[in-house]
Specification:
This protein is an all-beta fold. The chain is built from one helix and 35 strands. The protein has one helix spanning 98-104, and strands spanning 14-17, 20-23, 37-41, 45-50, 56-61, 65-70, 75-78, 111-113, 119-124, 133-139, 145-152, 158-162, 168-175, 178-186, 196-199, 203-205, 208-212, 221-223, 229-236, 241-247, 255-256, 265-270, 277-282, 285-290, 295-301, 307-312, 318-323, 329-334, 354-358, 366-372, 379-385, 391-396, 401-407, 415-420, 423-429. The chain starts with 13 loop residues before the first strand and ends in a 20-residue tail after the last strand.
Length: 449
């Protein structure tokens, strides 16, 4: 399918679509255009999910043909998701080590690491023998664990979603009607021992009782980057739908988004780095809502209900939407132009990680390494053994060294490489490759520079 791209000129352009004519009335004086990129056109389009890095968008045609849109290369390819690419809901793609599986008692390979790699929510043991397990929270650095109290139902798949700064996560459970948002956990000031866990219940707002509204097939909500709020659909006993801003430390202080017809809302998101504003997508508009002022700035306006299925990317840099009439057109909107953030000042240049090789007691089985972080900030790094399929990720705290054990690669030379976000840090050949150094005497190489 040929990719078609065009620029929708607001207030002066009228574009003919399958449902008729619509126009864009842009009222933000600072913006002249709203960019819509037509990515794919075919009847029966359905959005599946974004990957955790916000690079790939997965969608399908009538549940039969699978496609991947790559934002980096602005291209569409056919095929199912790569098994190494992690979905939005898994948050990071980090897998547990064999030691963690044994130490934490992880069941069924259900493991959701935070984006920074420091924490993980996993399926562990339960006091209730009728349940398959309970979700636990672990600090991967200190090896401390806490029970969340979130019981997993039989024959269902739990999901966990983290916010961007690894301080707040949600607990989702599958059901016959789709996904249900049931509870959340948060780590105040990154203090693991103070972590708290809450289950959603009735909320009394201005004398009206509301409950969380888990819409069929997908629990619509967003986690604030600052880790202090959750935004979700609420429904009263009288079936009145609303959007609630829920403080994680006290649900009783929940407030409602005013002057918005929640029945027409398709999706919403906290504006990155500006908790006073939220983005709301209805069936015909895309607005920026100012919470303190209770006012809205319309960034896009269609002449009729034009917007169908909608999905924000995890980093909120992209919005994907499908045309509501025939569900035959998939669009991507770049949201960076609507950010109000000032340019990030130059930061002190990070020092590169350093590898040290250690003698292994069983060099024919595994190799031993130490990875040193000379920086004043915690870092998540990736490692691989050159020329093999051996790879993984590990968290190292500021000015500390972490131990790493790698299986013996299926060749004679083992060389370890480490990188951060694809940027090379260091590489080193194992001591066990040099005759005479191991194991007759424990000799360690100095830190590489």
């Amino acid at each position: 399918m040929t990719k078609i791209k065009y620029r929708l000129l607001c207030c002066i352009s009228i574009i003919a679509l399958a449902i008729g004519l619509y126009s864009c009335n842009h009222v933000n004086a600072q913006q002249d255009t709203f960019n819509l990129d037509l990515i794919y056109k075919d009847p029966g389009l359905t959005l599946d999910y974004w990957d955790a890095t916000s690079r790939y968008l997965y969608f399908d045609i009538a549940g039969v043909r699978d496609f991947i849109y790559d934002t980096a290369h602005d291209s569409v390819t056919s095929g199912k998701p790569d098994e190494n690419i992690t979905s939005f809901f898994q948050a990071s793609g980090i897998k547990p080590t064999a030691a963690e599986v044994a130490t934490f008692g992880i069941r069924g390979n259900i493991f959701f690491a935070s984006p920074n790699g420091r924490y993980s929510v996993y399926l562990g043991s339960s006091d209730d023998p009728t349940q398959p397990g309970e979700l636990w929270l672990a600090d991967r650095e200190s090896k401390l664990t806490q029970r969340t109290g979130f019981q997993v139902r039989p024959n269902t798949n739990p999901s966990v979603r983290w916010n961007s700064n690894s301080t707040l996560f949600s607990f989702i459970q599958g059901s016959q009607d789709g996904d249900e948002l049931l509870g959340y956990g948060y780590i105040p000031a990154s203090n693991f021992k103070q972590a708290k866990f809450e289950t959603f219940g009735d909320l009394s707002i201005l004398g009206v009782t509301y409950r969380l509204d888990n819409r069929a097939f997908f629990a619509q909500y967003d986690l604030a980057p600052d880790g202090k709020h959750i935004m979700a659909f609420l429904k009263s006993a009288g079936e009145q739908l609303a959007i609630g801003i829920i403080p994680v430390d006290d649900m009783r202080k929940t407030t409602l988004v005013q002057n918005i017809d929640a029945d027409k809302v398709q999706s919403f998101a906290f504006k990155p780095n500006d908790m006073s504003k939220i983005w709301i997508v209805t069936t015909a508009t895309f607005v920026e809502y100012d919470r303190p002022q209770q006012t809205q700035n319309t960034l896009f306006q269609a002449s009729k209900d034009w917007i169908g299925q909608v999905s924000f990317s995890p980093d909120k840099h992209w919005l994907s939407l499908i045309h509501a009439a025939a569900f035959d057109e998939l669009y991507i909107v770049g949201l960076s132009e609507f950010y109000t953030d000032k340019p990030t000042p130059d930061l002190p240049k990070k020092k590169k990680l350093q590898i040290q090789s250690m003698c292994s007691p069983q060099p024919d089985v595994y190799r031993l390494w130490k990875i040193h972080n000379p920086n004043d900030t915690d870092l998540l790094f990736s490692w691989d053994v050159y020329g093999s399929d051996l790879s993984g990720s590990l968290f190292v705290t500021a000015n500390h060294t972490v131990d790493l054990e790698t299986p013996k690669a299926p060749h004679n030379i083992d060389t370890l490489r480490v990188s951060i976000n694809g940027v090379y840090q260091d590489s080193l050949q194992s001591l066990d490759e040099t005759p005479g150094l191991c194991p007759s005497a424990v000799v360690t190489q100095p830190m590489s520079r």
